Amino acid sequence: MKLKLLRVIKRMAEAMLFVFYRVMSVCMPVKEKRVLFVAFHGRGIVDSPKALYEYMRDNPEYKDYELIFTLNAKVPDVKSVKYRSFAFLKAAATSKYWFFNCKMPAFLYKKPNQVYLQTWHGTPLKRLGHDIVVDKEQKISRSGLSQDKRNKAYDDDARKYDYMISPNAFSTGCFESAFGVPRDKFIETGYPRNDYLTNVSAEEIIALKKKFGVPEGKKVIFYAPTFRDNAYNTAGYTFKLAVDFAKWKEVLGDEYVVLFKPHYLIVTDFKEDETTAGFVKFIDANADINELYVIADMLITDYSSVFFDYAILNRPMYFYMYDIDEYEGMLRGFYLDVYRDLPGRIYKDEETMLKAIKRGEFDTEAMALFRERFTYLEDGKATKRVLDIVLGNNK
Length: 395
Hints:
globular, 15 helices, alpha/beta, Rossmann fold, single chain, 6-stranded parallel beta sheet, 7-stranded parallel beta sheet
């Protein structure tokens, strides 16, 4: 009952904001060289908006542009506005360019002379939007919206797109069918956020290992599970950690260290165990995942799209899908045949997986085929290509 009331209040507030913003927006002129960046609704300077922002900030070619990042916490030397604040509304109303990696608030009215670039945030494994096959009234997430209403929200947002970034032809097809985005709006060029994975130096990797406290000579395992759509409460998505890190330590030994980073939408409070101290390092959910990719010797994940990006590094990965029967049958479903197309083996039992890691078992042929299909555009130059296209007429 409490959750239902909160949803009603939220929808009423959205309706009021729509009217207020529309009036305010009409009264405020657009500044031709102002850019508003939004990553995950203000969570931080991350993902492709980060790559685009830093390239513009550091490149003399864009020295005349005013760059505003949407941040829920202040960052030194960064001009920012808090998400949904009055300053955010003013920045949105007056910025020529909107660079979002997530769905924008429904109340934002895009004027004809504004440009909306949707960067999105990953090659999709799980079905999205109109591609999710469930009963029309079935609620598949904590938003409380039926599938029809969720689709309408995405449709309304997609109609505002001037451009959408796609990292590969596979993603273009998925986004086209999921969100109804016309083919001519895609910039199929790789993700700006992934340029870092190609361009990072050996010196930077050494510095990052020190930053995260990784002892010299250890093999680094990055464990990055995702949330489950049907596990949530009023605060966010919950997640039961279905691993026994003590067993991991027993099987793998002192040769390894594990970096565990939960998905940023997960609200479960994970507690460190003294018995695995030094073997498992709990990483803040808001940490820059690219930094963890480049220091990891291997990846363990489940249904997260992180493995598409990690494949750029051409390193081993393992899929711990202990609940795959439930996940595949009851939730969103997949775009890929996970038993055939993944660049690594699926494990339901963690001990079997750990022994495979210890023995160094990994299918290099499957990885090569996967990279040909999904990472062929990731050459470290996507950021420049995107900005040349989106800002080309204003340079």
